[in-house]
Amino acid sequence: MEPLQPMNALQPLQDLAVYDDADFYDQEFAGRTHDIPYFLDEAVRADGPVLEVACGTGRITLPIARAGVEVTGLDVMPSMLARARRRAEDERLTVQWLEQDCRAIRTDQRFALVFSATNAMQHLHDVDSVLAFLTSARDVLRPGGTLILDVFNPNPAKLSRLPDEPYHHKSVVDRDGRRLDVRAATGYDAATQVLHFTLDYLRDGSCVRTKKVSMRCFFPQELSALCRLAGLEVVQRYGDYDRSPFTSGSPKQLLLCRARDAVRVSQG
After folding, report:
1. Which of 151, 205, 245, 251 is the most core-located residue (most Cβ within 10 A)?
2. Tens digits of residue pLDDT in 106-122
3. pTM: predicted TM-score of the whole model, two decimal places
């Protein structure tokens, strides 16, 4: 199955300018480690080459490389990949890096595992882009290979927040080791299923940085249907990184998918 539109007809990816500052990204997400064991375990289990889509600065890619797994990191942002390369070189880790759009992955290699972590695919706002990514990822799987998708499970209470009702989102540490409190304001566009965030980074009550991010929300049955349209079969679904069963109250949707032809062969 081919993407619904050629790449030059797809909408440009949105909001990626927030990832220009790779150093700040590393600072902001330095404390996010709870998802690494899950993807590391899946990478080791895959018993073959692994591709991380939207790898950023290598937060998950590098631990996989440290475990001796053959791994490739793909990202569309040059600044993120430059930082990832430096980190890999500093540790003398062998990682292949691809600067590419995930909607048109170009490689002769076939992977035992392809994964997109930490809501990365939610930057794909339109259906054509989503299907282009899913089919592109499917096409670089080796027979029997697995694609893992990681998105949040939409919470109606959170989607109903109004833009004039900001809330404390998290706290991070800046380059100088000083605390930044992150204040978020959100507005949900039900027509497009896109949740728009305005994030203000406050130091001692004063805003020192603002980011705007928009995330496409995927509802559970919709996401399964999109996978099927892309020639994928969902073979397992978890509600969090601890592999807990997926329920309506789960914070995450972790989908393990295989090409439908491969699933039929294994079942036949």
Report:
1. 151
2. 999 999 999 999 999 99
3. 0.91
